[in-house]
Design goal:
The protein is mainly α and 165 residues long. The chain is 73% helix and 0% strand.
């Protein structure tokens, strides 16, 4: 129960901070719906704070927009899983569920990237065929890494030249 109640708080943070809610009216409506859900789950119970945050702490480690989209797509998936057995007879539950589904669609590229990362972790690097393929691609991978780091250096040096700090 503590997981569910604390995760409701995190849901509100995600939807408000990273969501695509267009108007302040929708944002207020969503916050009211989440407040009702918090009441349903008795999220003011003291055990909610046990063990610290489950999602928001991890979000702070992801700084780039694309990185955040990856982790947010997974967090939204967790909320959707939680809502699978929710009481959809309540309008505010349906509203939140619908908003989560819309967010999930907008974050679909993050889900695909996460699947790719999972696939990478499952590669059998002890398999000789996989090792041969990896060695074949090593130079290209290192070149791409070099291109990425040099573009960051270029941007930084361009900024330093332009900045009269």
């Amino acid at each position: 129960m503590a997981f569910q109640t604390y995760s409701l708080f995190v849901l509100s943070v995600i939807l408000i901070s990273f969501g695509h809610v267009e108007s302040a009216l929708n944002l207020l409506k969503l916050q009211n719906d989440i407040d009702k859900l918090k009441t349903d789950f008795n999220s003011s119970n003291s055990d909610v704070a046990d063990g610290g945050p489950i999602f928001t702490e991890k979000l702070s480690n992801w700084t780039e927009r694309n990185e955040k989209r990856i982790i947010l797509s997974q967090i939204v998936s967790m909320y959707l899983k939680m809502f699978e057995n929710a009481d959809k007879s309540k309008e505010y539950v349906r509203n939140i569920d619908e908003e989560l589904r819309t967010l999930k669609e907008s974050l679909s590229d993050g889900s695909k990237k996460m699947e790719y990362l999972k696939d990478l972790t499952e590669l059998q690097m002890t398999d000789l065929k996989i090792q041969r393929k990896a060695v074949n691609e090593l130079f290209i991978v290192l070149k791409k890494l070099g291109d990425t780091s040099s573009s960051h250096k270029r941007k930084r040096s361009q900024f330093q030249r332009l900045c009269k700090c």
